[in-house]
């Protein structure tokens, strides 16, 4: 036993066990090149898309993952208002499709024009 | 009032052209595709995965376990992708069984086992292969049910950023909406220009596992892992196999040059022929057989090789045909790979790509790691794959396996390194098995002795590399502290290779060769 202890004092294994998996407290979620990417860089389109896109609040703001740790960990309200900044306006046609006006069908147009008579024609 | 009488949604449902521009939809035609109101016709999933291969099905199960509402779309009709259906699994069945046959023919006599009247029943061998495949693919279906994964059999294509249209195998169409979408559509064999693949005379790996009879002559274009494995199978079953490789070594660029040379010698001894530094200039499959014109890669005399079957194994390319990437404006790089960031996100952050369809080596176990990491990014905000510690295995006999960097890469990078090797001919278990071809080769950093690469050719190499991968993985976790021990006088043996060498390995086992090779990097092996 003592012999082992002497050996252990002299030798320090360099293997470092990873231990229990924990999520680091700070994670940078901004897009970087993938480690296996041959070019080592991201195309322009990544930044361009984020500049334009708004999804549950602006995409280029820091994600709430690091503080909450999981989906739904923070209420959506904490992301702040989705209203545009002052001086910036959304056009209805720029909103997601579900907020846009629906097109009239021919049947509906005819129904209005004929006072409903076309429904019974 | 008339809204009830004229259900607008129904009258509008037949799809008009889908707009190609994405986030905002100024296109007026897009409006008509939606019902009035916020609800869509089916519930929105948390995650939809396009492709039920190794990346896709693992992600689906992992997401199901995490409690996400998940659906997996697969068009093949069975899960598991190339690997389970026409790749790793069926080829390993054929490799194992053809090896048994080869061993009975050539090897059992010296072991004191005399077997008479040995012959190949190819039909039965294929049936055994199919039993293995169907057992495993059905197993995944069971796991899907167990983990509440919805399995949609059909071909998926992006309709918009959140909607995937599915052309169902059984007829009909459906759409699925999801908050997150994973693309894991995998890869396909790269065709050889000038040869039309019919999977009978001119085959890819898919045809190579389903030949109806043993060809007399087979030419393999490409001396990488797939070419050598399938070449081995048919060579053992009696075909005269010639491998044509453009590069100066077999096994592809990842294999260590010394190991590649040894492997080539062993395979040549088994009857395979090799033409290295040779390029295929043309092929003619119009006759009964196939003629392949080859010449030296740097130019030289042309030669015509006759073959009954030509296996095209020059590599694989990402498969995204029919996926509707244009509809959402996703681009691929010059090799057809979907461009992703460090969290597997495409430029559209809720759409991620994993597996063969994106960067990195096209290996099933790499796809599996990525699947788990990508789902963890989704559920926990953090995932991890160490691309420096992904093993490669070639299942010929003897097997070849490696992890980390090889000598030529280290030389090119100007890294100072030490090499320790140990031959299986000095290993007791290999001796008792009468299976002593091959070596274990450790490469470690000359200053810190941290393991940089491990290369094995020999019996059971594929299983043994797991220990090397583990050592490399843990080594990687302590980077920066690597030369911690060098401060201590004469305690330089306290290094990673020594960590392996100081670990007791059972006797007699093949893994003792692994231990002794580690010992040889900083000292001398005991038994050699």
Q: How would you characterize the overall build of this protein?
A:
Chain A: One of its GO terms (biological process) is 2-oxoglutarate metabolic process. Chain A: GO terms for molecular function: oxoglutarate dehydrogenase (succinyl-transferring) activity. Chain A: Residues 19-87 are annotated as: Disordered. Chain A: Keywords: Mitochondrion. Chain A: InterPro entries: Kgd4/YMR-31 (IPR020373). The complex is a heterodimer of chains A (121) and B (528). By secondary structure, chain A is mainly alpha-helical. Chain A is built from four helices and no strands. The mean pLDDT of chain A is 77. Chain B is α/β, with parallel strands linked by helices and 528 residues long. Chain B folds into three domains: 45-188 and 318-380, FAD/NAD(P)-binding domain; 202-314, FAD/NAD(P)-binding domain (3-Layer(bba) Sandwich); 398-522, Enolase-like, domain 1. Helices cover 32% and strands 22% of the residues of chain B. In chain B, the strands form five sheets. A five-stranded mixed barrel of chain B has the order 1-2-3-4-5. Chain B has a five-stranded parallel sheet with strand order 7-14-8-9-10. The longest helix of chain B is centred in the first third of the chain and has 25 residues, at 122-146. The radius of gyration of chain B is 26 Å and the shape is globular. Classes of the chains: A mainly alpha (121), B alpha/beta (528). At the A-B interface, helix 2 and helix 4 of A face helix 2, helix 3, helix 15 and helix 16 of B.
């Amino acid at each position: 036993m003592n012999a082992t202890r002497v050996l252990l004092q002299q030798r320090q294994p360099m293997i470092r066990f990873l231990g229990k998996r924990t999520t680091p407290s700070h994670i940078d979620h901004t897009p970087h090149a993938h480690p296996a990417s041959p070019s080592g860089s991201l195309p322009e389109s990544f930044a361009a898309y984020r500049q334009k896109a708004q999804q549950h609040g602006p995409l280029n703001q820091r994600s709430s993952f690091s503080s909450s740790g999981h989906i739904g960990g923070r209420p959506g309200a904490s992301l702040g208002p989705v209203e545009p900044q002052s001086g910036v306006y959304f056009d209805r046609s720029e909103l997601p499709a579900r907020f846009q006006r629906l097109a009239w069908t021919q049947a509906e147009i005819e129904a209005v024009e004929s006072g409903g008579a076309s429904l019974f024609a | 009032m008339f809204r009830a009488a004229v259900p607008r949604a129904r009258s509008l449902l037949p799809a008009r052209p889908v707009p190609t521009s994405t986030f905002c939809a100024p296109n007026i035609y897009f409006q008509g595709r939606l019902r009035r109101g916020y609800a869509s016709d089916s519930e929105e999933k948390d995650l939809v995965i396009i492709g039920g291969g190794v990346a896709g099905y693992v992600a689906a199960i992992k997401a199901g376990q995490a409690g996400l509402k998940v659906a997996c779309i697969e068009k093949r009709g069975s899960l598991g992708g190339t690997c389970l259906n026409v790749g790793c699994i069926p080829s390993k069945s054929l490799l194992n069984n053809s090896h048994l046959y080869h061993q009975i023919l050539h090897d059992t006599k010296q072991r004191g086992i005399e077997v008479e009247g040995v012959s190949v029943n190819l039909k039965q061998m294929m049936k055994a292969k199919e039993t293995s495949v169907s057992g495993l693919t059905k197993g995944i279906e069971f796991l899907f049910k167990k983990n509440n994964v919805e399995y949609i059999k059909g071909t998926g294509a992006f309709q918009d950023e959140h909607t995937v249209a599915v052309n169902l195998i059984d007829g009909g169409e459906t759409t699925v909406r999801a908050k997150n979408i994973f693309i894991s559509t995998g890869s396909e064999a790269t065709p050889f220009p000038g040869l039309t693949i019919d999977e009978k005379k001119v085959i890819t790996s898919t045809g190579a596992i389903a030949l109806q009879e043993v060809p007399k002559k087979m030419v393999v274009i490409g001396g990488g892992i797939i070419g050598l494995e399938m070449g081995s199978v048919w060579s053992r079953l009696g075909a005269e196999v010639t491998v044509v490789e453009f590069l100066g070594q077999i096994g592809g660029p990842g294999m260590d040059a010394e190991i590649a040379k040894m492997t080539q010698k062993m395979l040549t001894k088994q009857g395979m022929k090799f033409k290295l530094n040779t390029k295929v200039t043309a092929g003619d499959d119009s006759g009964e057989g196939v003629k392949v014109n080859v010449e030296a890669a740097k130019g030289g005399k042309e030669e015509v090789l006759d073959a009954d079957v030509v296996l095209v194994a020059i590599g694989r390319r990402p498969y995204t045909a029919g996926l509707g990437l244009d509809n959402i404006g996703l681009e691929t790089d010059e090799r057809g790979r979907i461009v992703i960031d460090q969290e597997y996100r495409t430029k559209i952050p809720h759409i991620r790509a994993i597996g063969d369809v994106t960067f990195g080596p096209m290996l099933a176990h790499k796809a599996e790691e990525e699947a788990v990491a990508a789902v963890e990014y989704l559920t926990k905000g953090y995932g991890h794959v160490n691309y420096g510690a992904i093993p490669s295995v070639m299942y010929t006999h003897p097997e070849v396996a490696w992890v980390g960097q090889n000598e030529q890469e280290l030389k090119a990078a100007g890294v100072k390194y030490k090499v320790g090797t140990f031959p299986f001919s000095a290993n007791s278990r290999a001796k008792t098995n009468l299976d002593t071809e091959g070596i274990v080769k450790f490469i470690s950093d000359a200053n810190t002795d941290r393991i940089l690469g491990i290369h094995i050719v020999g019996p059971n190499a594929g299983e043994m590399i797991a220990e090397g991968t583990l050592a490399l993985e843990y080594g990687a976790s302590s980077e920066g502290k690597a030369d911690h021990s060098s401060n201590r006088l004469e305690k330089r043996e306290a290094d990673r290779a020594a960590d392996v060498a100081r670990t007791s390995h059972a006797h007699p086992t093949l893994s003792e060769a692994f231990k002794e090779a580690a010992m040889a990097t900083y000292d001398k092996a005991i038994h050699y």
